[in-house]
Batch of 2 targets.
Target 1
Amino acid sequence: MNTAEKPVLQVSNLTVRYGEGCPDCQSSLEKNRCTKCGTVWASNDVSIEVYPGEVLGIVGESGSGKSTLMQSLYFDLEPTSGRAVLSGYKNGQVNIWEASSAEKRGIKNKIMGMVYQNPVRGLRMDYSAASNIAEKIIAAGSRNAGEMTERAMELLEAVEILTSRMSEAPKNFSGGMQQRVQISKALANNPSILLLDEVTTGLDLSVQARVLDLIRKIKTKYGISILLVSHDLAVIRMLADRTVVMLDGKIIESGLTDQILEDPQHAYTQQLVHSLL
Amino acid sequence: MQILQIKNLTKNFYLHNVEREIRSCKNVNFSLDKGQFIGIVGLSGAGKSTILKCINRTYLATCGEIIYDSEAFGRIDLTKASEREMLHLRKHEIGYVSQFLSVMPRTTAKEHVMNALLETGCDKAQAAARAEEMLDYFRLPKSLWDIYPNTFSGGERLRLNLAHIMVKNPRLMLLDEPTASLDNKTKILVKDILIRLKNEQTSMIGIFHDLEFMDGLCDKVYNISEGSFV
């Protein structure tokens, strides 16, 4: 093991606040809302590191700040404060949240891939599956139609979608297939980190198993680092090497996944684990 | 040569919902030499599994030290090692085997063993060849290699577990009641396999209920009662 290995992604002190805040906020929070000024702290001083080839799981109840973290990383919302660096962007020296709009687009298209819980957010439902992938490749600067078709075929095959259906629009696909097209689109430009936000939620068990299997294969085959948000502890157990637990916008506990699930330290994590069916 | 040294290991669990601390093991001390097999016996709930899970860092030790002589890091206290260091050790040096099988959905027995190697960066062809070698070594019938293991018997699951862990050639094996649900014939087969591993200088700590099973296998046997060695 290279003991000096650098994280692919390092987030420090991410704060996303809705409201002006007041001097008493941190001591007057009821869940994540200040009782004095009404400010909501969706993310409150969150720091994480994701290392090469690992899956970092993020668990927590609705409103705990999981998706806020993902949306901040993919520039879907602007953080109030914090720093995030990517080893693939300016050698990890520059805060991506301070990058220009053009640079942010470059990061989204070349370094990160995002898969949303709802495929409608990640796909153009009226375009063909192949066009969805091509769109991502074009955004990264390629104009070679032959190469794009070849890449779309390769990726759709990797996510087990028949290439004979590559000209069909995702609106005609099942939920599981749409999710797999979304994953193939996210992989289009060989990103170094994949953000997966509740990707198996709402899918039936057999489809869920197929998506989980696909994620594991992607991890093994491409060596991509994955940030995996899920409220399903079974999914986290199967895929995540390490796990952080979030509550009310804060990280309350982190550790090796099996340790978090078998020897949770925080009262909330114990409650969460004991709620597992 | 010592590969593992446990010093004053204590593990308590604090349960927030009842605001109570449960003591599991207290002031456990022992050491394991390279190629040695140590057996731990005791009643259910005595704290046997807790010791192994603390070594594997599935449980966080309350206090004490677990000094492991690692190939990658030299002498390292597993209670204080970083998560990344522990992940490396689990991938390359320390194997934990229980009677329970945890396999990814839609993964065949052979793929399960291959995955252990693919995760360490091994190429697919080499992983496939090594997986077949291991499944053969652990005498899992060839007809089961391409089947999803959720239909396997207890003995077949255990042998698959052993193959999954041993394919990485760990230096330290932690065996957590692996024979608990096996019939006598399968136990004899497993014992034979463990003796072969021991002869190949794999260091092992095993928890067993069956004293007869441990005969001729363990170099030392510790009896644990109410969390302490007696």
Note: The mean pLDDT of chain B is 92.
Target 2
Amino acid sequence: MNIRDKILVVEDEKSISGFIRTVLAGAGYDVISAHNAAEAFLMISSHCPDLVLLDLGLPDLDGTAVIEAVRQWTQLPIIVVSARSFEKDKIDALDLGADDYITKPFSAPELLARVRVAIRHTRLSGMMTSSGKFISGDLTVDYDKHMVTVKGENCHLTQNEFKIVSLLSRCAGKVLTYDFIMKELWGPQSRGTNQILRVNMANIRRKIEHNPAEPKYIFTEVGVGYRMIEPDA
Amino acid sequence: MKTFLKKIRSLFPLSWKDCLILVLVMAAGSGICTLLQTISTSDVHVPMIFVLMVLIISMLTDGYFYGILAAVASVFAVNWAFTYPYMKLDFSVYGYPLTFITMLAVGIASSALATRLKEQQKLRLEAEREKTRANLLRSVSHDLRTPLTTISGSISAVLENGNTMEEEEKRELLVNAREDAQWLNRLVENLLSITRISGSSAIHKTDELLEEVISEAVVSFQKRNPDVKVSVSLPEEPLFVPMDAMLIEQVLRNLMENAVVHGQTTDRIQIAAVREGTHIAVSVADNGRGISQQMLPHLFDGMIPMEKKNSDGNRFMGIGLAVCRTIIEAHGGTISAANRKEGGAVFRFTLETGGNTRYEYSG
């Protein structure tokens, strides 16, 4: 028998909650819902969902506080649902441990894509070590040889450039904040400007993308961070 | 006591900048007088020069305080340094008291006048901003009505007569409703963008890579319009431009949406950025039907002359371009539109680079 993934939808607006439930149920997920933070805590500990869709504007507690509290005891994937134009909220949520975010208003396919990525990442987190390869279209990231190739040709990335690409590719489909990437590469003291990261990224784009202004592999989430395309199945 | 102090402070706002202006201008005045003294023995020009300095100080500083201070200081300076007996304060010489009182009065009056002038300028600016806001509100409420009618009408039609309708018919109604809802969303995004520009010049600029902002706008545009071919050409070097990235992305998205909605026959959009001295020029060109001559001068003021017969085609004219202009001007740039010789329209805006667009690459 097929065990279905269980998704908890935390959203106080009944109509949005209803729409999300319909979409997810239609795609074969088990859906449970909570309408405030207190209910959400209860459901998470009693139902052990495989994923939480969390609205940031809850009536009883700020969504970021919920992330913080949940991250104290479990690593289950959390996708934040937020309004556009508040990039600060998105960054805060991601830095507190949310796995991804989706911006209102979103379409059904967008929602399902994010859910799929987040669930797959938890399934594969053990396997995604630095062995093996990441392949998407013409792009190959070879973790063993420390090499990135496009159509089989070596892109000659520098040490740091390779580190950035391999970090992004291991979290492919997820958005990584500037701060997160900076800390992974340049250590926790790397506070302040992220211009060095942007310059590295500009150089990477010139090496792996056909046209840097129309990227196919690494996308920018303006004001938030970078997201790599999902690998071929 | 505290409120009293506050009142005093608002009447006589102290700032280092204004103090510096006061000192510098007064020094300049004294310098000129000293220079003139070496050429001519007459000292008729001295009070005049100091009155001029008082006027300049009143124009450059906030409030009455510095103007009056300058007037008083001038009186003493003229008496002490530039009139007989030199280097000595003496108000008793015949005719001097009158000269000094006149000078003081002129100084105070001119500083009051300058302050009034500045206040009026501020009021006029505010009135202008208020007018833009009212215009925007008017076009927004106008623009809201049509899609809302479509959405609620289509959905209630499906709900109430759903069982007697053909599947095809139902689908068409729902598709229309969805399209209009998406359009409403874009309108709301534009409104949100405007609220980000609160006050006069309070946008938050950070150095952004232009290519990232453009590519993000293009990616989200292509999601909605997969049939339109968008090509981008950029300089080879990475360009860092100070901007509010969300707002500039909004401008690019509006221009691309417009190219499709108003260009009507648009199936290619070309975006190009070039560096022109101290600023960057970005252009968005399409191959649609272009802009009619009668509309061209009104494109950016949010008050498009409506072609009544074709009201449906024009309903999107609303606020998109007015928002673009607001955003670009808040960045200190300019935006313009033209028709291309080879057909279609081209929109072009500039952004200041703030000098340093290059960033030294170090590992």
Note: Chain A has a mean pLDDT of 86.
